[in-house]
Amino acid sequence: MDTSDKTITCRAAIAWAANSTLSIEEVQVEPPKAGEVRIKLASTGICGTDDHAIKGLLSAIFPFIPGHEGAGIVESIGKGVTSVKPGDKVLTLIIPQCRECSSCLHPKGNFCEKQDVLPSSGLMLDGTSRFTCKGKKIYHSFRTSTFTEYTVVPEIAVAKIDDAAPMDKVSLISCEVPTGYGAAVHSAKVTHGSTCVVFGLGGIGSAIVMGCKASGASRIIGVDINEEKFPRARALGVTDCLNPQKFKKPVQQVVMEMTGVGADFAFEAIGLSDTMLAAWDSCHRSYGVCLIVGVAPLNSKLSLDAPMIVSGRTMKGVCLGDYKTRDCIHHLVTDYLQNKINIDPLVTHQLPFDQLHKAFELYHAGKTIRCILLF
Ligand code: PAD
Ligand code: ZN
């Protein structure tokens, strides 16, 4: 049956209020408007950013459908859409690429200005949403929303991928892989023989470790308060595991003592100002590079020791590995298909969408690197 131009009724998970349990509901998904794409989701990962948004730590407007790390098939397209067509395999992109704004036009910029971090990110570009439930408007998350069988996303936030892509796994290449692996290989350009320290060994931290290892780092120190993360981290390339709660002194001091001079590269993949500071303090004072990947709660601040800044080390924020998303992210899918990168160790759990609550239980219990929900 041709569903284009028709509203589709399907199942979706809704966050009705901050910190509430998600509920799976029947929702109506409008057809895509001009410049938009309606996607039938095949899989979606559960990212730390979704958890932050559901807890009300970010700028999401409630009620909304969470999720951004999605892989699916284009069901229909709105007027003027040229980069994808019905039947194409695609990834949803939390950072779009409009190719018109100052970030997109700059050779280094990737934080497209159409991705605003203000509350309106819950809306489509025309200021409304494409979802309703029981007659009530339901907002998008970061203009994507992937905890749903169907979603509508602006064309600028959709990347066409290789037809051979396994749709039960490549959702991770929508966010986790470019964010983590990309932070190491593309943003930091980790050097051969270097020492790296990675704060947070969850989904993003694990992908960072993969990138450090692939870049030839000789020592990778992993920091996490959950020691259950250590065996998998070691398997990915972590050489030393530290649980900050096991030390009387701050963990950055432990890293300094272990390395003598500080790390060449430090990555924060948790999203807390304290661990951002610890990452900064773990770097070599002169040439160390500290990458902030974790998303801190709204309105939190970072306070640095100002006189210490002059010594030369760099702090850099990084979103999706600094990749221009539509231009670059599909290459990571091809790299996976050609066995140049292996994302399989990042997929620890796959569950049907209706077991969403179990998936979140596993995530909150710290058992997962990434759990993928399958539709
Ligand atoms: P995750 O929950 O899988 O991993 C977080 C890890 O941090 C877990 O292993 C925790 O045990 C550990 N942890 C928590 N608190 C502490 C602490 N105080 N000290 C040490 N370890 C701790 O989440 P994730 O890996 O999916 O996401 C991590 C962060 O990255 C999160 O803030 C998310 O919003 C952010 C993110 N950023 C981007 C980007 O482009 N910059 C993209 C996607 C996710
Ligand atoms: Zn842009």
Which descriptors apply to this entry?
single chain; 375 residues; alpha/beta; Quinone Oxidoreductase, Chain A, domain 1; Rossmann fold; 2 domains; seven-stranded mixed beta sheet; six-stranded parallel beta sheet; 17 strands; 22% helix; 23% strand; globular; binds 5-beta-D-ribofuranosylpicolinamide adenine-dinucleotide; binds zinc ion; ER; zinc; NAD; oxidoreductase; oxidoreductase activity
Spans of at least 5 consecutive residues whose pLDDT stays below 50 are none
Strand tally is 17
What is the CATH class designation of the largest domain?
A: Alpha Beta
Distinct helical segment count: 9
Please, what is the CATH homologous superfamily of the largest domain? Medium-chain alcohol dehydrogenases, catalytic domain
Q: Give a quick account of the main beta sheet: strands, pairing sense, barrel closure.
A: 7 strands, mixed
